[in-house]
Amino acid sequence: MLRLSREIRVEWGHCDPARIVYNPNFYDWMEGGLLALFAAAGFDMAPMIAKDADFRGTPLVRGDASFMAPARVGDLIVHHVEVSRWGTKSFDLHHRFTLNDATLVEANQTRVWARANPDNPQSLAAVPVPDAIKVALSEDKHIRQTIHQETR
Amino acid sequence: MLRLSREIRVEWGHCDPARIVYNPNFYDWMEGGLLALFAAAGFDMAPMIAKDADFRGTPLVRGDASFMAPARVGDLIVHHVEVSRWGTKSFDLHHRFTLNDATLVEANQTRVWARANPDNPQSLAAVPVPDAIKVALSEDKHIRQTIHQETR
Amino acid sequence: MLRLSREIRVEWGHCDPARIVYNPNFYDWMEGGLLALFAAAGFDMAPMIAKDADFRGTPLVRGDASFMAPARVGDLIVHHVEVSRWGTKSFDLHHRFTLNDATLVEANQTRVWARANPDNPQSLAAVPVPDAIKVALSEDKHIRQTIHQETR
Amino acid sequence: MLRLSREIRVEWGHCDPARIVYNPNFYDWMEGGLLALFAAAGFDMAPMIAKDADFRGTPLVRGDASFMAPARVGDLIVHHVEVSRWGTKSFDLHHRFTLNDATLVEANQTRVWARANPDNPQSLAAVPVPDAIKVALSEDKHIRQTIHQETR
């Protein structure tokens, strides 16, 4: 499977009065990682949604997460994300957040490929995941996004 | 069990380019609901943490959530939260978000009562949940927080 | 002018490692207050945007803010907002956040009434603020939104 | 002055139903940029606050911002930040956000060097900015943080 690993610098605003990352940020990062994975595979969600008025993206249907250790301001954590199952109209993602070699958070999500429901455009209908998506996201490659710093 | 139901007005900033609530907001609301439930039971977490330098709150250990239907800007949703299990050092919460009579999101969380680890204050140790907390949060009462509007 | 005052409970997730409200939350609340003010005047922005494909809302053009005192978890602050100037295509808002009788934050914003630019739909064009909006938001009324709690 | 320029990828969760960056995110990024600037100069705020119980960071006192153009999901914007004035107990920051060569947002902030007020630890007292901070942040250097992507 195509695997994306991206560095995330923990910022002041990610942390709460207990001085650790406020847990909803991990869910926010999962959304960012999904989009980054699709973009790395050549599929930019934003223009896909802008061009196709009835495409509704890949809404989250179910998720679970385990929190093993906290992260703190300044930590450089790594978010690993890949597809772990292909269904017809759905797929699963596996997320892992690490700091150095320790796993901080591990999570699974089931998402659907969604279009506007033709009978009621306010609601969603799951439709088959396009084959081109499955092929691109199933490639055996590892994409790494890292933050570089240079001084002049 | 003590049950809290609180109204949440979906705001512009809660919603994403798909024009529905961005799912990490539900996780943010779960944190808010936990604190509101404890406060309604007479236990304000912030002063508890401020007064007891080694108390670390009730960090999330595990959670799962199912998303059934979206919410949109302006929707007045209701967040229901109550303890669904008492362990020795942990407890489970059940969350449900409704819009009119439809369930939007249903979630379960396992959290621990945490103090600084005496051997390594940077890490946490789960300790027994105080009896006073269990008693207060086990009361058979329903607390409702609603938003009122009046014009003069 | 129509003035809206709304209660905001400061939550755990609004606060940072300094254990005070993380300042970007005040800017988030200003957006929420603007929408609440329009809604209270009978103009719900979300359906207005959904119904009129070229309407782009009231984007922020300029703002300033002064921060006098911090707020903390559990504080019940009040956000006061009203229009302070009408231009042809723009208007100014005045925001004030109070805790008990102290002013925490005072801010001014200039916003425009925006539509898609007919020459380039990706960009915005400021257009005259509709008279019905000016009339409704100029009424001499005070709307208060408060959080009520009841136990059964 | 020491100038930091850092790349920020606009994510789905940064954008609102108008499909542009929700403006409070720019204020969030300003906070992140300040911390990144201090860290690049050798001063990590989080350990400074953790080690010195009475140090309260550099709270925002006043700010203004002008918004010239929107950003959208997937845009790679650059945030430029540097000190623009040193006072005795305060300093000003200048922020600029660009996309390609266009300026999206320009902002100024006045912040103070703060410690707990000895007469009332709940409130803050501005104290002189340490000389070592002024020297480090006044160096004539440009630090660039960029996001790199590699595939294996």
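Chain B has a mean pLDDT of 94.
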